[in-house]
Amino acid sequence: MASITLKDIVKKYGDGFPAVKGVSIDIADGEFVILVGPSGCGKSTLLRMIVGLEDITSGDLLIDGERVNEKAPRDRDLAMVFQNYALYPHLTVAENIAFPLRLNKGRLTDAEIREKVERAADLLDLREHLDRKPANLSGGQRQRVAMGRAIVRDAKAFLFDEPLSNLDAKLRGQMRTEIARLQRRLATTTVYVTHDQTEAMTLGDRVAVLRKGELQQIASPRALYEQPVNLFVAGFIGSPPMNFLPGEVKGSSMELPFGTFELPDRLVEAVGGRELVIVGLRPEHFEDARLVDPSKKERGRTFDAQIDVTEWLGAELYAYVPFEMHASVAEKLEELDRELDGEGLRTQFVVALNSASRVRDGDTTELWFDPEKMMIFDPETGENLTHDQDEVDRLDKENEEDRRASLERAHAQAQQSA
Amino acid sequence: MMGSVLSTRARVWWAVITVVVLVGALFPVVSILMTSFKGPSDLNSGTFLPPQWSTTNYEQILSSGGSAQELFLSALRNSVGISLIATVIAVVLATLAAYAIARLNFPGKRLILTTALGVSIFPVVSIVTPLFNLWRNIGLYDTWLGLIIPYLSLTLPISIWTLAAFFRQIPWELEQAAQVDGATPWQAFRKVIVPLAAPGVFTTALIAFFIAWNDFVYGISLTSTSAARPVPAALAFFTGASYFEEPTGAISAAAIVVTIPVVILVVLFQRQIVSGLTQGAVKG
Hints:
The complex is a heterodimer of chains A (418) and B (284).
Chain A: E1 4-12, E2 18-27, E3 32-36, H1 43-51, E4 58-63, E5 66-67, H2 73-76, E6 78-81, H3 93-102, H4 110-123, H5 139-151, E7 157-161, H6 169-186, E8 189-194, H7 197-203, E9 206-211, E10 214-219, H8 221-226, H9 231-236, E11 243-250, E12 253-256, E13 259-262, H10 265-271, E14 276-281, E15 286-288, H11 294-297, E16 301-306, E17 309-312, E18 316-322, H12 327-339, E19 348-354, E20 364-369, E21 375-377, H13 389-417
Parallel strand pairs in A: 3-8, 3-9, 6-7, 7-8
Antiparallel strand pairs in A: 1-2, 1-4, 4-5, 9-10, 11-12, 11-14, 12-13, 14-21, 15-20, 16-20, 17-18, 18-19
Helix pairs in contact in A: 3-4, 3-5, 4-5
Chain B: H1 8-36, H2 56-62, H3 69-103, H4 109-121, H5 124-138, H6 144-169, H7 172-180, H8 185-214, H9 217-221, H10 231-234, H11 248-274
GO molecular function, one term (chain A): ATP hydrolysis activity
Region (Disordered) (chain A): 379-418
Keywords (chain A): ATP-binding, Cell membrane, Membrane, Nucleotide-binding, Translocase, Transport
């Protein structure tokens, strides 16, 4: 177990292309940190630099306070799970897991190796597959063998490179909880790369959002969701994604595509005299006006919307509302959409309504929203003008307390069962 | 599997084509086999099957006291020894070279590959005369080494090419995984790459062996005695029991005997050659 520190890490490829542009992250002992971002943001490169498969152009990489930039992968004592598992096809499951142990000839006896392999296999429910070859295993089983190979030798940290992207949706959900359970139990420092924001939010103690090789924000999942620093983070975190709407400000009133509303004082201050801003509203901050609690309804505003398409999912109902994009922010938002691997098909916003709502395709209905929940972004820089650092610190502190508590619980449980 | 896809008509056509190809490929071999069992007087009988089955030809080349035994057995020893040594050297060198070509980026990589190709397409006949003079001057003429070196020039290029193609198929990530697991580059190569490349190495070794085994031009030009003369060259020196008898029978028998090791090798390594060991290495 170890802490990992990245100081101004830069990666430039031979052709001068900068894949990572000065990233600094402090990863505490036992922490689960996610590196997330759309394709090409440099997250995998960063991970491969930590493990030593990729040279670091400049900056310092410290493991337990010791600089390891020039160390070969085998001397860094880290374990990695590859995207396509990279199991050795000529070895059985047991030998695959034992592979790291066998490399240090003489240090462990055969009996010790067998015991460690069996312990790892029990942890991952692989006991009855130990004599099979990887080619005869299912995707999820291969995935578990790859994890077994990582946990068998008590490495200083685990590194995961998109480990679930080759599994189907159901298995992905199962393996996600499996990884979370394992990490809690072993309390090993973990760095996990993914492009999937759901994995990032559910697994991470802290999530680092990367964009084009630059770190945008690193915070607890909740702080990222509620207090994103900019348009990019706001658009990346959350599913369905946050709606971005052009907002024209006149004094203390704001004109949105679906109506003009009075702004609360806090937001007027955030707008700071700008005439045009980008307004961010999460889908769940809307509601069918007929289903809003009267006491709550007072706080919000209502407007009429022409519903284009609805998707009823049982737990909730998504409704899509087309709107006219203001020309001066259209380009900025299209660029954002491209960066987030979107297709930029049409300008619409999505609202997540109570599943009891009777709203259907083509209806005109009254929707409700709370202006307090609005985030205001600068249309030029994309900066979140409503970002509240104190709130971020509070959320992160809470998150850190929760993490420590659950670690202690895991320790106590481990001692009890031992 | 195929049967359900192909129509009856197509199946008939495939059967016909298969039979034609088999007959074309195997008729000469069977013909030689039959000739090898004919007695000296039946050689010109004009029949396919020997009128009288006899093993005189085999006795002649194999049993002690046979007229061609001395010539044949020493040639067989030379052929086996020289071909095996040339194959081993070629495969070891080609494995290392191909690994470097497949995995590393170094200046002159393409040059090595094109040079290897160039060497292999250079006509043997145009090299053999200067080589004959050179070998006589430096004392390699009529020695095993004098044949092994030119055989390497034949086997190395094709070995490097086939092995490089094979190494490229082995996922890079397996090696990286081994490195992260704590392996030195040599351990990663020996414990991960070599076992996975084994089918490719077997195939390459087999091809290299056959090239050396089948060579005639170098064998007849660079040797003069039984010290190094291989079988294909030695066949030309067979003589009949008398001046008026042709050695056709003995040559046929010898040809059958030298075909046997090739058949055994193919049968033996067939499974390694065919087995797709890399299956399941990656997601699949």
